[in-house]
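Bumping with the actual sequence this time:
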Amino acid sequence: MERRRLGANGPEISVLGVGTAPIGSSPEWVSWGTQDEADAIAAIHAALDAGANWIDTAPFYGWGRAEEIVGRALAGRRDGVLLFTKCGTLPAADALSQEDNRPAAIRADLEASLRRLGVDHVDLLQIHDVDEKTPIEDSWGEIQRLIEEGKVRWAGLSNHPVERVARAHVLSPVTSCQEQLSLLAGPDDPGVLDFVLQQGIGLL
């Protein structure tokens, strides 16, 4: 499978990766219908056997269920597989979720992800969505500390407007932005597409 560099200094990734939101499906979270764990693991293995070398997951996907399944799928197969996860989207009492990108929340979210995935680091950590109450500088600074500690290799942003991407990029390079991009939906802020091209940021 063809591979491309993710951003200016990121890893080489296959042009197709494995998305895992549906395998977190449950009536208590978001339902894509019944998801069989054995089928999910077999699908991940099939993708890796076909040449995919990265898996994108998040604590939000089934509130950890997807990460746990990914961890089981990678038992004994971690070499050569890049793990991407996210942080900052937490359960809420009166809604599906809430955003908390304060440094302590980011750190706690990552530590829980590492336990579920059964690894000591992830390759890409992405802030999942915008937290209007927390300056991006505070959130991005904590992720840089996690990189320095060896718990994260690269850092990215998911579903963030160009203004916040630019503010983070000034502090330390943003490796990638993850955006909706299909015939049905584009990014919430189309300016992100121009910015990543100009700055050499990868696009997932």
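The tokens above came from a reply further down the thread. The chain has a mean pLDDT of 96.
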